[in-house]
Structures are given as structure tokens and as C-alpha cells.
Amino acid sequence: ELPLSHFSAARAAAVAVGYLRYLRGGPGRGLELRELRRARRQDIDGVGHKYYLELELEDVLDKDRTVNCTAEVLYRLGSKTSAPDVQVTVQGELRSTEEAEQEFYNRIRSLEKELVAENIPDSHGNVPPELEPIHLLAWVASGYLIWQNSTENTKFHLAQVKHVKQVKRSDEDLQFDYVLLLHEMVSQEVLPWEVTVLWHPQRGARVSQS
Amino acid sequence: DQVLHIVPETLQQVQHLQLLCSTLTLDLWKPLLPEDIRAGEDLHIRVPAPLVQDVKDTLDQHMISYRVLIYDVQKLVDQSMPRERSSHRQVSGGYVYTEYHPMEEIYQWMTQIQKNNSELVTQHFLGKTFENRTMYYLQISQPSNKPKKIIWMDCGIHAREWISPAFCQWFVKEILQNYKTDPKISRFLQNLDLYVLPVLNIDGYIYSWEIDRLWRKSRSPYENGTCYGTDLNRNFNSSWGSVGISFNCSSDIFCGSGPESEPETKAVAQFIESKKSDILCYLTMHSYGQLILTPYGSTTKPPSNNEELMQVAKEAAAALKGKYGTSYKVGSTALILYNNSGSSRDWVHTIGIPLSYTFELRDTGDYGFLLPTNQIQPTCEETM
Predict the structure, then answer these.
(1) Residues 6+ apart with CB under 8 A from A61
(2) Residues of B numbered 247-266 whose beta carbons fall under 8 angstroms of chain A's beta carbons: which are they?
(3) CATH for B2-71?
(4) CATH 3.30.70.340 in chain B, residues?
(5) What is the pLDDT of residue B86?
(6) Which residue range is the domain that position A175 belongs to?
(7) ipTM surpassing 0.85
(8) Which of A127, A182, B12, B255 yields a CA-CA distance of 20 to 30 A from B274?
(9) Is B99 an 8 Å CB contact of chain A?
(10) Which of A136, A135, A186, A124 is nearest to A162 (CA)?
(11) Letter string b/e over residues B47-62, b meaning 16 or more CB atoms within 10 A of that residue's CB
(12) Is A187 exposed, middle or buried (CB count within 10 Å of its CB: 0-12, 13-18, 19+)?
């Protein structure tokens, strides 16, 4: 059992949240950690360290409701190149985002010129409302990066969307090329990452590092 | 971006311009569509900054004369738009506390605050930054014939943590607005003096406004000017250079060339050393994380007065939570966050100041350093 305030629990929780954002997030849904309810660590000989977490999450667009979730995060021993194994179970239902996401999809598809934006949020923390879905899609992308690149000695957060450019496609997916700035808490570095997100209302998000 | 004014003279020129506009998808201001470009009629095109030179070159090559109508579109836009003010204003004598302010304005604010509250507030010289800017602290002190203990608070040791200087300013305003009417505050001031340093890392703060919003360190050069800045919160003389630091000057946790190598660190350390027998509590404000951190960062061995430190911190966190439900975690840096050495809070404790805390203000990572201005008020109110 770990004290909830211990840094290793917080780091594992950040990985779980990243993974969840990647899996369940979208332009109409951004998941946030409300509270870490329970954390337990198991040292598995020859394998690695496994964290068992109970998390309380909220949807930024629906803050009055929270959703509980359990997660298992396994950091494998001596593996600097492979992502932690994460499994999550969300208890209960997340608010439906079908309508909002379809509306976003239609809006972007009907743009004459490809969308380009930078510095989201801006220096004063502001996000123009029409860019909020792009911001939340960046959470999906950063969630993927955070899951893929975390170790027990790191804690990543998305600091800012430095640049985003839409790339028009001949198929039905939307494509956005992002430059994301990730803040790593232990080294305090802010690192740029290039990432491409394909998104479709039914097919969801697919993220690839550029 | 620039806007060019062109009057095409021949059909050939018209065709070339139509091709140029559609190939580069230039923003036509007049006419609206390439097909409406006519010889002898005004053509206004907005050219994005990276393409300006190329477009001008191709116009020259085709002997198409042009003149620049607008040299800097952004500047014009900025000038014509009124500065946005948040709808929940907290204005005291014209100063908007629910916005982030650049250093120039903070200097002016300090002068005004002293002027408007001269019976209570005095502005004092603390030292100079590397780039030779003056560091001032405000002393809030009720005249009295009994000696008073001191509470010191500094903000902005890390440039990008803008909510921190915003809090120091808010704090001063709250005290000064309410000390006559709020019994808690007036009792406070009967027995204690408050010393507030609104921005410790002035050079870095200015740099984060003008060049790089996510800058953290100071701006002193190292390695022949190939890299800049020391992490001032790794530069104090508390197990300096031992853990959670880097000796590489390009690292964001570069601890400097030695303990107190930086003028900003030295200015603060010298002052605190000189007043140490009177300082009861040291507070240093940071973001983000929602944490109240106690000594130490360099070891998990608890300080001698750990119980007292923890109890006071827990009560503070509970009071904070009571306002808007915001959760703060409490504990030592080494247990809650990471290992680090050379922090101001640890050094202050080692020289004998009993209560020493680092506050990591809102949030927990969703906006991080870029905390929206609409959270300034609730963050400051709950932290009061």
C-alpha cells in the first residue's frame, strides 16, 4: 500500500490518465484526474513494478459528474524503450459526445482553408472556444505520448500546443499535425514532440509519432 | 504579414497574378476572387510573413510594380482591438488583479502601493539581478513600540510560474484593503510584519513575457554565452549540487557554478541571514501541483520539528480546501515530488527558521504553467 501523496503513485496515475485520454478522449471529451483514491505497489521479481490504482475522473465538459476507474500500470524492469503496460476499467458511463463530435467533424470538413493554429492555450491560459476541440484532441495525442514515454522516474504533462496544422485527406479521416510541448516534472524540461492525429467520429483517434 | 497594393497593367500580368494567388492560396482582400482580378483595377493581397520575400521577388521578375499598403498586419490588429478584461474584475485603484502583469507594471504597482498606503507599506531595495535590474520587497508593518516577528514570502523564483507573482500582488492588496475591518488581519499585523518579494527572478520573468513563455531559470550566461540561466531554486546553500540537479548549464535544473553563485540568490540569502532571528515563517510560492511542501528535498530524513511543520501545513490545506474544494497534498518534497538540493526553503530551515514552506499553486497539470486568467481570483482567494 502506498501513501497517496507519494510521488511514485502520482507518476503512475499520470500514466494511467494519459492512457485513458488516448483511449477514451476526443474533440468532445477531455478526462481529468479529480482524485487518486487508492494506490498499491507490487514488486514482481524479474518483471518489474506494478501499480494498482483507483482513480476518480471527471470530464472537463461535464464537471459535475465523476467517474471511477481502476488501473494497473506495469513498468517493466530494465526496459527503457518499451512503454509501461496499462490496463484500465472505467466504471459507469461517460457522457455521450456523438452530437458535439459530429458537429466538429462537419465544421472542419467544410473549411475552405486548412486549419492552422498556434499557442494553445496562449500565454495567459486562454483557449478560444472554437479551438477547444483541437485542444482536447491534443490531450488525446499527448496522452498517447505520455503513456508511451513514461518511466518511474518521469512525470509528463502537456504544457502547450505549440502548433497545429490540418492536413486535408482524400479519405474520410481528419488529419492534424501537432507540435506539442510536454513538461517533464523531474528534469523540469519542456520538450517538443511532433505527432500526427487521424480522427473520425466513428473510428476514433489514431496517433502516430512523426 | 504584409498587404500589397498592385495595379496590373496587362492581361499577362493579370494571369500571372491569378496563378500566384491560387498556387500560394494567398488571402485576397480586394477583389475577393482571383477571377475578378482586372487590368487597371486595384488589387490588395495579404501575404503571410514567410512568403513576403518570395512574392516580392516574383513580382519584380515579372516587372509588376507594387507598393506595401500594410507593413505589419498583426500590429494593426492588436492596436485596433481593446485589451480584453475578464468579466470578474478585481480592481483596486485601477489595477486589475485578475490579470497577469509584465514587470514594468509590477514595478509601477509597487510604487503606487507604497504611495497609497504609506502608513503601512515601505518599499525596500534587496539587490540586483544579473541583468542589473533592481529587486524590491514590500514591508507591511504597523507602527508599534514592540518588536515584531517577520513572515517572509517570495514569488516568481521560476519565470514561467506566472500565477505566483499574481498571488503576491493579490496578497498585498487583500491585506491592505482589509486590515482595518478584518479582525484576523489586524491582529496579525499587531504582532507580525509581512515582507513580500513579488518577483524574485525578474530577468527570467521578463524573458518569459518577451521571448519564451516556458522559461524557468535566471538569465546569467555560462560557457561563453552558449547557454543561459541557473535554476535559482537549486542554487541555495542546502546540500548544494548533491541531488536532483544538473551541472550542465543547458539543463532546466542547472544549479549554477556554486552555492549562491547567482546575484538573485545572494540578495535573498544575505537578507534572510541578517534577519534570521526574527523570521518566524518563510513562504516561497511556485506552480503548479497543488502542494504544500515541507523540508527536505535532498533527504527523506524528517526535520527536527516535522510534527509542527506538518500540522500547520495540514491545517492550511484544510482551510484552502474549504473555500472552493481544491485539494492540496502536504508533505516533504523528497516524498511527494522528487529529490532536489539547493532549494531556498531547505536552506532557510537549516539556518534555523522553524516554519518553511513551498507552495505549488494551481493546477495539477491540465493547464500547468498556463493557468487561465479566470483562475487567478479563485486561486488567490483560496490561498489567502
Answers:
(1) A28, A29, A30, A95, A100
(2) 251-253
(3) 3.30.70.340
(4) 2-71
(5) 43
(6) 7-209
(7) yes
(8) B255
(9) yes
(10) A135
(11) beeeeeeebbeebeee
(12) middle
Element (H, E) at A135: helix A132-149
One-letter amino acid at A163 equals H
Q: What is the pLDDT of residue B25?
A: 84
pLDDT(A55) > 70 = yes
- The whole-angstrom distance between residue A153's C-alpha and the CA centroid of its chain comes to 19
- CATH number of the domain enclosing A50: 3.10.450.10
Q: Give the class (CATH, top level) of B103-211+236-383.
A: alpha beta
Q: Which chain B residue has its CA at the smallest distance from A112's CA?
A: B25
DSSP A32-84: EEEEEEEEEEEEETTTEEEEEEEEEEEETTEEEEEEEEEEEEEEETT-SSSPP
| pLDDT of the residue at A80 | 67
pLDDT at A210 over 80: no
Interface check A121 vs B, CB under 8 A: yes
> What's the pLDDT tens digit per position in B170-183?
999 999 999 999 99
Chain B residues within an 8 Å CB radius of A187: 246, 251-253
Q: Does A23 reach chain B within 8 Å, measured CB to CB? A: no
**pTM of the model as a whole:** 0.81
Best residue of B314, B341, B366, B375 to probe chain A, by most A CBs closer than 10 Å: B366
Q: Residue holding cell 489567502?
A: B384
How many domains is chain A partitioned into structurally?
Answer: 1
pLDDT given for residue B84 in this prediction: 52
Residue B17's SS3 state is helix
- Judging contacts by C-beta atoms under 8 Å, the chain B residues touching residue A21 are none
Q: Does B216 touch chain A (CB under 8 A)?
A: yes
Return the pLDDT at B85.
Answer: 47
Cβ contact (<8 Å) for A14 and B365? yes
B35 vs A: CB within 8 A: no
pLDDT at B23: 87
Q: How confident is the model at residue A3 (pLDDT cuts 50, 70, 90)?
A: confident
